[in-house]
Amino acid sequence: MTKTLELKDILETCTIIFRQRVANLIKMGNKGKLLMIRKNAELEEDFKVSEFKSAIFELENKDLETKIKQAQKYSPSKLILFEYKDSLTSVIEELKKIKFDWFFSTEENDQESIASHAKENEIFALVYNIQADSKWVHSVNNPSAKLANGATIKNSSKITGLDLLPMVAGLCAGCPYDMSISGFTLTELESVDMPENIIEGQITLYNEEEGVRIASPVNTLTTVSKNNTEDMKSITIMEGIKRFDTDVKYAFRTGYKGKYKNKYDNQQLFISAALGFINELEKADILDEEYNNTVKINTDRLRELWIASGKNEDEINAMSELDIAKLTFKKKMCLKFDVKFLDAIEACEIEVEMY
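Now predict its structure.
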């Protein structure tokens, strides 16, 4: 027999879902799924997918084993290896069937394809030396580096900039939400060679007293607009935005969508659950608790929708905020979140006065 629900059940269901998402969000390490792509001409099939949840394994291909373990060092929740036989473009649709948070390719010829796929599907990607002008694409541009502790790739401790991708991608995927990738020392590296030019929109590694670190935790976004603000150049900010967007949509999809009639009271209960989610993110230092983070019915959007549907513009615009909020539009719930994401401290300016 179908269980009869009361209005309070909406709040409780969504609240539980939000709490579950927060628990995953603030978990230190084990943050994101990382997809690693490489060409393997020896495959019998067009492509092959393997998963590595532990660093305890051995492969016949020692260079591949090294790169996988480099990517695993900073604790992404899972490493997925996607190998293709002929070309990435021939199997690119298969990537859409795999769930992951960050991805990269070890193949030089794949870098443009990776950048394009990231932009089209709004997934975080790491590439080598690409100027993509995108908040989804991140690019390393150091030309070369030297591995530490006697490690080698292709029998040499000297590696190319392309070989930096596994360790940097692993760091991006595993870095906790309340930290920045610039806070870590890449102990796999003894030193790194600087690019000829340090340019905007590139992740640049540099040598510091503690070891090799990242100077610029940014994506390739350089053109600022209404939908691509200056803050969105930061990896920390964009990961928070992506996670927030994903979790709110997940809670709506699994706890609310299609289950209740579209009326004001039901919308307010979902908003109450979302406000609880916002409060938890403030406690986790993902949102700024000093800012008035809010969520409300988007009355401006409702006015636009009703006018576009043929309602009298003067009548719609004359309605109060509360009245238009209660005039729900067909099957759609229009919400407006106003939140401030916290970035990491990346610089310090000190002024000393002496008498």
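DSSP finds ten helices and 13 strands in the chain.
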